[in-house]
Amino acid sequence: MPFDLTLTAAMHGALRREAVRLAGVTARVDVDPRTVLRTAAGWELLKLALRVHHSAEDDALWPALRRNLAGRPADLGLLEVMEAEHDAIDQVVEAVDAALAAPGTGPHLLGDLTDSLVTGILGHLRHEEDGALPLIRATMSHDQWGYFTGVHAQRIGHDAARILPWLLDDASEEATAAVLALFPEPVRHAYRDQWRPAYRAPRLWTARGTG
């Protein structure tokens, strides 16, 4: 039986979607991107999703895969790269926040940093899918993958009211049902009755007070 990649696929799709939206913010000429990123919910949600996804991988996926790959230095090297890419993305996120907090930061520096972040996110997702997922399929047990999926869902669950509507923003009905099935019934009901109706995707990347 193949692994259920529903949650990972949904998260990767959402991160790609928001990386494109972030790039669009700094490409616009009619708004100051510094104002947008300082106040818009989209930036905070993107950072939150990155923390949740990367921490679940760092704590529950890579350690199991490393044990499975003992004695295979080339494949273990790929895991080192995966973790290094996580660290690099985290450092650029911190640099963006530092630039936003500095009163003298110009839009060009912010544009360069966000370009670097978008490139890092998209490159890492592609690298993970092309390199790490084949190793996962070849060496991990269903129990190991199920444990990771459970940890990932649990960490989303801590901020489910914010993350789930964002995660499932443009998901199909089938994908939405599959992701929601990973969560307890009260979460599913809250998503359908409260969180999803309150979610306003077009305003995520609008500066507060202007949209």
Outline the structure in words.
By secondary structure, the chain is mainly alpha-helical. The protein has a single domain (6-203), classed as nmb1532 protein domain like (Four Helix Bundle (Hemerythrin (Met), subunit A), Up-down Bundle), CATH 1.20.120.520. It is built from nine helices and no strands. The protein has helices at 6-27, 33-39, 41-68, 73-101, 107-139, 142-157, 160-167, 173-180, 185-198. Helix 1 crosses helix 3, helix 1 packs antiparallel against helix 5 (107-139) and helix 3 (41-68) runs antiparallel to helix 4 (73-101). It starts with 5 loop residues before the first helix and ends in a 13-residue tail after the last helix.
Descriptive terms for the model:
211 residues, mainly alpha, Four Helix Bundle (Hemerythrin (Met), subunit A), 78% helix, 0% strand, globular
SSE order and pairing:
Layout: H1 6-27, H2 33-39, H3 41-68, H4 73-101, H5 107-139, H6 142-157, H7 160-167, H8 173-180, H9 185-198
Helix pairs in contact: 1-3, 1-5, 3-4, 3-6, 4-5, 7-9
Mean pLDDT: 92
Count the helices. How many? Answer: 9
CATH top level class name = Mainly Alpha
Class from secondary-structure proportions: mainly alpha
Into which percent range does the helicity of residues fall? over 70%
Q: Kindly give the count of domains.
A: 1
The CATH level-2 architecture is identified as Up-down Bundle
The largest pleated sheet is described as: none
Please state roughly what percent of the residues sit in beta strands, choosing from under 5%, 5-15%, 15-25%, 25-35%, 35-45% or over 45%.
Answer: under 5%
Low-confidence stretches: none
Ends distance: 47 Å
Cα Rg? 18 Å
- CATH superfamily grouping: nmb1532 protein domain like
Question: Regarding quaternary structure, how should these chains be classified?
Answer: single chain
Order of helices and strands: HHHHHHHHH
Count of β-strands: 0
Tell me, what's the shape? globular
Question: If you consult CATH, what is the topology?
Answer: Four Helix Bundle (Hemerythrin (Met), subunit A)
